[in-house]
Amino acid sequence: MKPHRIIWTLAAILALILVGILGYMGIEGFTFIEALYMSVITLTSVGFGEVHPLSDTGRLFTTGYIVMGFSGLAFASHALVGSVMETVWTGGKERKKMNKKIAQLKSHFILCGYGRVGAAAAEHFKANQVDFVIIENSAEHCQHIAEQGHLHIHGDATHEETLRAAGIKSATGLIALLNKDPDNLFIVLSARELNPTLHIISRAEDLTSEHKILRAGADNVISPFASAGIRIAEALLVATGRQAGKESLASQWIEVQEGSSMAGITIEEVSRQMGTRIFGLRRSGQDTIFPGPEISLRQGDQLLVLQDFSEPQTAGETIAPHKVVIVDDNPVILRLYSRLLQKAGFLPLPATNGQEGLALILAEKPAVAVIDYILPLLSGIEICKAIRSHPDCAEVKLLLFTADERPEVQQQALDAGADLVIRKGPESSEIIEAVQLVIRNRPDPTA
């Protein structure tokens, strides 16, 4: 509803009443209260009696006043009703148009919460021309979002139906930025169940909530205050000449996974190999700021580092992750295993059919190849036989996974050269554990 239209309508009604007051006071000599009363009952046509008998001039004035008042009130009513209908119609039309755009999105991002952090994230997405949808429960914030031209849904992000409306099934990533950690935890749980391959980043106000949110299915948990503190400290070091300036810095927790080459070496050595300083060590739930360089890392430790993305890194500056080729014709499984392997510190290389998988393994010579038993063009058995016929791929570990539990199928895979046969099941973590197992047992080529 347009405010100026309402103001003009009210002003017209007041002007009509004022004309009646002045007319009755000037023609009939009524007092102000009597003139106001006569004006109102005349305009509204309620049929009450006259205050005093009217003269002929008064009756002529009343006749003209009724016609004028009826026309004025009809115009005012039309303006008000039209304004209301326009608001309802326009709002519904815009909402349908926006919902249609959201339904057409693919590989987009979902932003839950539009506070200061969410607004900054939305502007960054927009600047990089990335498709995204905002879920916001505040009507006031939604009004601001609409003014910015962002696609959005007015609703509660902790409800599954709201996440579905935002297209979570076809989304690539989700950011949970609500002010309460339990709400973000619930969003992560719901989102991970609705889309197992989704990349999820969550905000956490309390450090004790980070582990819970990660266990719920988040890929990363960020504390805005901790990140801001690191940025402020880094800016101070640069300003005082204690450290060279960096154009693009990002903080990240890196976990020492089972079988990782970081396990057993000191923080000083890891810092040298990664080309960055270790700002924090998290061990058994305890955080240490600027840990001593002589501390040896253990499995399960987490390191807080600042990575510089302004310049490309050269070989030797980072610990190269193990390559793992995944061959599966199911895109959901392919994305799920790729995400889990990447989270575990590996470099996943996907392939969607047997021929593509064989070519990728021969070209990349990965540490491990995870191959489905039934594939288009070439089967998993045929891939294993082809790989084992190439001497330069002798160090590649082959994992074949299948839903067929027959012993002869497993023996056939082992005879073809598979190092391990894994049964397909609901626990996707078994694949990751198997990859870590064969990596540990893989001989060191430099030894």
If you consult CATH, what is the topology of the largest domain?
A: Rossmann fold
Instruction: Please write the CATH class name of the largest domain.
Output: Alpha Beta
β-strand percent reads 15-25%
Number of helices: 15
Explained architecture:
This protein is an alpha/beta fold and 447 residues long. The chain folds into four domains: 3-97, Helix Hairpins (Orthogonal Bundle); 106-222, Rossmann fold; 238-308, Regulator of K+ conductance, C-terminal domain (Alpha-Beta Plaits, 2-Layer Sandwich), CATH 3.30.70; 323-441, Rossmann fold. 49% of the residues lie in helices and 16% in strands. The protein is built from 15 helices and 15 strands. The chain has helices at residues 3-27, 32-44, 56-103, 116-127, 139-148, 160-165, 181-194, 207-216, 224-239, 267-274, 331-343, 354-364, 380-388, 407-415, 429-441; strands spanning 109-112, 132-136, 152-154, 173-176, 199-203, 220-222, 249-255, 278-283, 286-289, 302-308, 323-327, 347-351, 368-372, 397-402, 420-423. The strands form three sheets. The chain has a six-stranded parallel sheet with strand order 3-2-1-4-5-6, sandwiched between helices. The protein has a five-stranded parallel sheet with strand order 12-11-13-14-15, with helices on both faces. Strands 7-10-8-9 form a four-stranded antiparallel sheet, sandwiched between helices. A hairpin with a 2-residue loop joins strand 8 and strand 9 (286-289). Helix 12 runs parallel beside helix 13. The protein is elongated, with a radius of gyration of 35 Å. It starts with a helix and ends in a 6-residue tail after the last helix. Mean pLDDT is 78; it is low at 246-250 and 308-318.
